[in-house]
């Protein structure tokens, strides 16, 4: 048995234990619980706390030495019975994927009614510890855990988030992002504090949020944290090179936890609200019939997942060859359900999104001398490091001969290609080939090549963008027969969309949507990830084409954007153009 893989066994340092223990606001603790005691480091802290009277501890591994004087019950916490509730539950619970959970635990989850509506084949062992720990808290009891952050974001953990919110409130979340808090553990780690509160649910205090920007652990990290938490008692925002810390409202549903500073919440809400207006009427297909709906009344699968509605109350439909869901109004009337709220229009509604092609070894295919190759042997590529705001700085030629089927033809008709690639043959043959037999002179994965050939006007964005240092995102207009590789995601405007692609480009490059992405996008350790899903949900303000004022604003934004694209340098005129675009974007959204 692998104790890390099967038991989630990761040991906590004394510094972390002391910091977490001091987060408790309770002076008198009748009963404290450590559900995953390990070597007893939390127990050692608790037994030295003068206000703690009784401590219960559980640990499944009988081989571990107990460094405390507190007796440990060597049985599964998840199977344990308790005759009383706890003032404090504290610890470092295990995180183990379902496929690695021990068989007896899986059997218990399947046979015990307590787990029937909580745990399934997509759950992590961590979820079970969260559910049971919450249930074992007294009213106003405190739960202080150090865990990976994934449960705050993923679809499969939405029941945990919903349960947590329904049973009390979060007081604190500290996100260490890229800092390695445990040796040999690469997971993004958080410390959080939860308070159980079944009464006075409307008067919950704001959450303190601390997001680390620095990548490395340092000796004074917990002293700094204590000072930051004290400062947050007197101010709403701390932003420096090490952290961004702020307070935000309690989360309201099972959607991924996306904390937004109090001074930004109204703006973020307004960005999303304004993107619900002007949603056009569209025709969606159900089988052989067409149904007319407003675009903001059709939902993606992800949106349905996070609505408090059963998927059975929705019909699956098609729009622009993509799957959406509409609410079944007939069934709704019969069962008297409320109607789901209209959603905002997202970027994925108006553009097709696809990641770039994979060569498997870019340096082998990169052209260094144009004269050596024919036009039909190369393609033009925009790499991530060639992109800038609004436009790309450079185009790079790459060898592309995927239509050449045999080595004989390659040598006979494309000798210069052969002469370059033969130097890399050994490494090319070692590429990951997606379980296919691929000649070494072929690119290994042509995903979305057809998408990039649909239009000569595309928007490219790096798949990953370090926004904490850069302070902006590079959405670039790429014109001509240009392809993206795997470090770039391509956006192609859908044919029904009336808005100009330069209008969309301006919105995406605006400071306003940068703020939305910073707090509501997929951000890990200061890096924004731009695969299809996170891009799809960027709110897009469409134009009311019957309103001359809005049409004029659209045309002005397009004109200003074209002037920026034509600029060769980022001078004072460039900054003025950018400011004027920003004012027009704010006029529409805010």
Salient structural properties:
9-stranded mixed beta sheet; 590 residues; 5-stranded mixed beta sheet; single chain; 25 strands; alpha+beta
Description:
With 590 residues, the chain is of the alpha+beta class. A hairpin with a 2-residue loop joins strand 24 and strand 25 (527-529). It starts with a helix and ends with a helix. 37% of the residues are buried.
In short:
This protein is an alpha+beta fold and 590 residues long.
Annotate the secondary structure layout.
Layout: H1 3-7, H2 14-22, E1 29-34, H3 41-47, E2 52-57, E3 86-91, H4 103-111, H5 125-135, E4 137-148, H6 158-167, E5 168-175, E6 189-196, E7 207-212, H7 221-231, E8 237-239, E9 243-248, H8 262-274, E10 281-286, E11 289-294, E12 298-299, H9 301-305, E13 314-319, E14 322-327, H10 329-335, H11 347-350, E15 351-355, H12 362-365, E16 378-382, E17 390-391, E18 396-399, H13 407-413, H14 415-421, H15 425-429, H16 449-452, E19 457-462, E20 464-466, H17 467-470, E21 476-479, E22 482-484, E23 488-493, H18 501-508, H19 511-520, E24 523-524, E25 527-529, H20 532-536, H21 548-566, H22 572-589
Parallel strand pairs: 1-2, 1-3, 3-4, 5-7, 16-22, 17-21
Antiparallel strand pairs: 4-6, 5-6, 7-9, 8-9, 10-11, 12-14, 13-14, 15-23, 16-18, 19-21, 19-23, 20-25, 24-25
Helix pairs in contact: 2-3, 5-6, 13-14, 18-21, 21-22
